[in-house]
Amino acid sequence: MTKRIFLVGFMGCGKSTIGKYIAHDLNWDFVDMDSFFEEKHQCTISQYFERYGEDGFRKAENEVVAELSKQNNAIIATGGGAPCFFNNMDIMLSAGLVIYINVEPTDLCHRLRNAKNNRPLLAQKTDDELLSYISSKLSEREPFYRRAHIVVDGEHLPFSAYRTLIELHNETEK
Predict the structure, then answer these.
(1) Each residue of 1-12: b (16+ CB within 10 Å) or e?
(2) What pLDDT digit, counting tens, does each position of 100-154 carry?
(3) Sign of CA dihedral 67, 69, 75, 80
(4) What is the pTM of this model?
(5) CA proximity to 74, closest of 12, 146, 7
(6) Comparing C-alpha atoms, which of 140, 34, 111, 41 is closest to residue 78?
(7) CB-count exposure of residue 58 (10 Å: 0-12, 13-18, 19+)
(8) Residues in CB range of 102: below 8 A, 6 or more apart
């Protein structure tokens, strides 16, 4: 029986929205990994990046992945890059069910266009630059994301279908 579920995918794919829905549906806890990181380190991820650089952030993020992999009855929305560094994906795959929420770059661009000001990596990009950035980063990360136990169409799969997928996965694990 699955004790924790990790949602992976690119920023804007819906990990938090879907994660909250699944958590409510299963009566489990919802954990946003980025918020968990910020609370644990008492600073924003941007501030942590400024102080310790990406290498320092990724090491600290790896510790957070290991910590969250022990939490029971939790839906964990990971940071978009988390599965792609160190042994994070291996930890998640062995600790619970991993679901990749796959969304096409053009759809991600549309979703992220309105949230650029809240995301430092995207803030100054034009629409064309945003699409190019998303396409490039997604192609780098796709091999990691695709290692998930389940890959779903994040654009068309209804929220209600996630419970069925989880139950089917649990049946095959018996």
Answers:
(1) eeebbbbbbbbb
(2) 999 999 999 999 988 776 776 787 899 999 999 999 999 999 999 999 999 999 9
(3) positive
(4) 0.96
(5) 7
(6) 34
(7) middle
(8) 9, 13, 145, 151, 152, 153, 154
